[in-house]
From TrEMBL:
Protein name according to UniProt: Sugar 3,4-ketoisomerase QdtA cupin domain-containing protein
GO MF annotations, alphabetized: dTDP-4-dehydrorhamnose 3,5-epimerase activity
InterPro entries: NAD(P)-bd_dom_sf, RmlC-like, RmlC-like_jellyroll, RmlC_Cupin_sf
Taxonomic lineage: unclassified sequences, metagenomes, ecological metagenomes
Pfam family, any one: dTDP_sugar_isom
Amino acid sequence: HAIKNNLHGIYNVSGENQSLLRLGEIVSDITDCEIEINRNIVDKRSYMVDSSKLLNTGFEFKYGIEDAIREIIKSPTVLNFHKGVYSNLKLAERVRTAQTIGRKELQLIEGGIAVDDRGSLNFANDFNFYGVKRFYQVQNFSTSTIRAFHGHMNEAKYIYVTKGSAIVAAVKLDNIKSPSKNQEIKRYILSDRHPQILFIPPKYANGFRPLEDDTRIIFFSTSSLEESKGDDYRFPADYWGKEIWEVENR
């Protein structure tokens, strides 16, 4: 199942799939390295070299173990086992992070502005980028343009207005295919004059409308771009009514 040779790594070149635990045991037998396996994580991924991995790595189908070894020797993708530890702890950490984020509620993280004779500094010291994998900045050409509603079942977002101000709305999704229109809408005004970061957990739809020209908003996402593509649900801006986007006369 695994071959020890002059290569700097261990390769499963059998046609039989291996569980993460079994693969770790094989690696331990060959290398005598320390094994760190979190048994609370059920890993059902394939550790065979399937056709998609062959395409990604440039490997070709081989008819014998010797052919496979010769291909691996020439490959630039050979892995080096410098640390001597085979572990699934990184996977465990990702699962734990996703579970923690999934339990969180809507939250406004307060920031502030410090001003002295040199200038001003906007900050949000209680924002720790927990679970963030990427960010992007959005700027509308018009204050009448509403970007809403975008829903996610797994992805969470942190929203921060770096310039200008905006109405940001969020609503909990009770049914992803046909959400109730009676759900309570949470409406926030975010502004660079009062720095705050809005956390929107999974199973929510959100959107925004800028209130000033040149308003700029940064979204910090807990999903990669590929993960987000399979977790994107759209609803019309007026699905929960138009009044949430209007400026209230007082």
